[in-house]
Design a protein that fits this description.
Elements lengths: L1 E2 L3 H4 E6 L4 E6 L20 H11 L3 H4 L4 E6 L2 E6 L30 H5 L2 E9 L4 H12 L5 H20 L6 E2 L14 E5 L2 E10 L10 E5 H5 L4 H22 L4 H17 L8 H17 L10
Parallel strand pairs: 1-7, 6-7
Antiparallel strand pairs: 2-9, 3-10, 4-5, 6-9, 8-9
Bound molecules: iron/sulfur cluster (SF4) (2 copies).
Length: 310
């Protein structure tokens, strides 16, 4: 989820890369689970979170919906988030449904990416670099496809309907700040991303300040990659970039469509990347890449352009 905030209000003044040390460690967490309560709808799940959750809980998306997770419109797309308030059990204290009776995370080993990051955030950079041929053709391509005339609207709606139908028949089978850079990255900070088609796209990590409510909690330095704690950071960060910019590009291009088609496409994306089960015996990343390639191909038929090429 993008947060529309002035970054200088929430950060410690440094950007970090995965090999940097950041003051994320906390000795005061024992017996405190404040971070897992009153989170509202802020813990947005990405497809890797869904893969891990369904595998480790042995529950499907449908099993979890309206119990542990809910869906809502986020930054123009329909995405699932952890559901903090259980309407069926209003007597339960508000908080993450995965908190156990001792106030500990019952899914710690496969907790969502947002939880792994906290109190770090990701600061995304997306800026034009130079005036390359690719940049010009990208802009022209984006202009070319439209759903403005009645005939175009009909074609777009039909393709959106078809895509939604495809998703249904294939039934067998996402943190961030983005704003104006008002300071320089520290000399150690590694930018995660690349220049692609005339745009510099990627992210830095930053440390959010004021997120820990325990005044006497002491924080100590931990290497960013150790703090996030995924097995292999390279494919993970590539996935994070790919997913972020896929959502961003899709939401931006959806704006050209009539409301009904917008919703159908957003629902199809939800269906393809979250509802359709993943094969638990296969790695996540190739499955994600295959779904992404086929989705981009479908969307290209109605004029979407994706030039990320990570
Ligand atoms: S509020 Fe602070 S002490 Fe409590 S769980 Fe979060 S980071 Fe730990
Ligand atoms: S999934 Fe675990 S770490 Fe994340 S909010 Fe819930 S209890 Fe806390």
């Amino acid at each position: 989820m993008q947060r529309d905030v002035a970054i200088n209000d929430i950060w410690d003044g440094r950007f970090y890369g995965k090999n940097d040390m950041a003051k994320t460690g906390c000795n005061g967490c024992e017996g405190c689970s404040d971070c897992c309560r009153n989170t509202g709808d802020s813990i947005i799940l990405d497809p890797l979170d869904m893969y891990c959750l369904t595998i480790w809980t042995h529950k499907s998306f449908e099993d979890m919906i309206e119990k542990e997770i809910e869906i809502r419109m986020t930054d123009g797309m329909i995405l699932p988030n952890i559901m903090e308030y259980d309407e069926a059990h209003p007597e339960k204290p508000e908080g993450c449904p995965f908190l156990d009776e001792n106030g500990r995370c019952s899914i710690y080993a496969f907790r969502p990416g947002f939880c792994r990051l906290f109190p770090l955030g990701r600061y995304y950079v997306d800026e034009a670099v130079g005036n390359t041929q690719e940049e010009i053709s990208h802009d022209a391509g984006a202009e070319k496809a439209s759903c403005n005339t009645e005939a175009e609207k009909k074609t777009c709606a039909a393709e959106a309907e078809k895509m939604s139908g495809d998703a249904e028949t294939e039934k067998m089978s996402g943190d961030a700040a983005e704003g104006k850079l008002s300071g320089e990255p520290s000399e150690n900070a590694q930018f995660c991303g690349k220049i692609t088609h005339g745009r510099k796209r990627g992210f830095y990590y930053f440390l959010q300040k004021g997120e820990c409510t325990k005044a006497d909690a002491e924080r100590y330095e931990v290497k960013v990659s150790d703090w996030i704690g995924v097995e292999d950071m390279d494919p993970y960060e590539k996935f994070i970039c790919t997913w972020h910019f896929f959502l961003k590009d899709t939401a931006a291009q959806l704006a050209r469509f009539p409301e009904k088609a917008r919703e159908q496409i957003a629902r199809s994306v939800l269906q393809i990347f979250y509802v359709q089960p993943y094969d638990r015996f296969q790695d996540f990343y190739p499955q994600f890449e295959a779904r992404l390639a086929s989705t981009e191909k479908q969307l290209a038929k109605i004029g979407f352009r994706y030039d990320a090429d990570w």
